[in-house]
Write a structure and sequence with these properties.
alpha/beta; Rossmann fold; OB fold (Dihydrolipoamide Acetyltransferase, E2P)
């Protein structure tokens, strides 16, 4: 089973926070934690490493939701998208919030589907900012972020760590992603997928195959062995493949 997307909720009204958490879990997301203060939000974020943060603009205390986001950005970097939750539409507050470059604003009360769409778009846009990928005609089923990527399964995106990928195999206009636990099919050719998943451990060994060096059990001649699966290594890619190894 793939790791679910982890979401941190920063909301000082416990009943509201628990309601949001329950609704997110029903949509298939994992709750990284619920924080009712800026200090607690930073502590949970550093420990749980959420994929996305939902932050109420007006949390109680000396540090409001907007300044909390600034602290979270310092700790987590700019790659973790933030969605503000607010029951207010004060122009001055919204203008201040815009300076933190949030992924979205959602006005309470909101519908589950509205929140789910905002989360999907936030993850997609975060991936584009990170990889500087321009809109094109390829698959929108997969989005990359640092050491992981998100696959669209049904109506939601689920997280897969690159370290768990054993190999990728091309099949006409589709690719199969084989992980330690499961196989997934993506509507993309291998070249497009290789560009999106660019990583030192992932190496092209054949026009139809890319392997994760960390998962190779053995190799000889024109093939590599991963989990008892023999994968061909073509002459066009063999030199580059062998350069990845330091022979004694």
């Amino acid at each position: 089973m793939m790791d679910r997307i982890k979401i941190l909720i920063v909301e000082d009204e416990l009943v509201v926070a628990e309601d949001i958490a329950g609704r997110l879990e029903l949509c298939g997301y994992e709750i990284a934690g619920i924080a009712d203060s800026s200090e607690q939000a930073v502590e949970i974020a550093c420990r749980q490493k959420p994929d996305l943060c939902l932050v109420d603009i007006r949390i109680r205390g000396a540090v409001d939701g907007i300044d909390t986001v600034l602290l979270l950005t310092q700790k987590l970097g700019t790659g973790v998208p933030v969605i503000y939750l607010t029951a207010f539409s004060d122009a001055a507050i919204l203008n201040k919030a815009k300076l933190t470059y949030p992924a979205a604003f959602i006005v309470k009360p909101f519908r589950d589907r509205e929140l789910q769409i905002a989360i999907e778009l936030a993850l997609q846009n975060a991936e584009r900012m990170h990889k500087r990928i321009e809109p094109d005609g390829d698959s929108k089923e997969l989005f990359r972020l640092d050491d992981r990527f998100f696959l669209k399964i049904g109506n939601r995106f689920e997280k897969v760590y690159i370290a768990d990928v054993a190999w990728l195999a091309a099949e006409r206009s589709y690719c199969e992603i084989v992980t330690s636990r499961k196989r997934y099919t993506v509507a993309s050719n291998l070249s497009q997928l290789a560009a999106k998943l660019e990583h030192p451990s992932l190496v092209r060994v054949h026009r139809s195959f890319m392997v994760n060096l960390e998962h190779i059990d053995a190799f000889e001649g024109n093939s590599v062995l991963i989990r008892q699966q023999e994968i061909p290594v073509s002459s066009n890619y063999k030199d580059d493949f062998l350069k990845r190894f330091r022979f004694l």
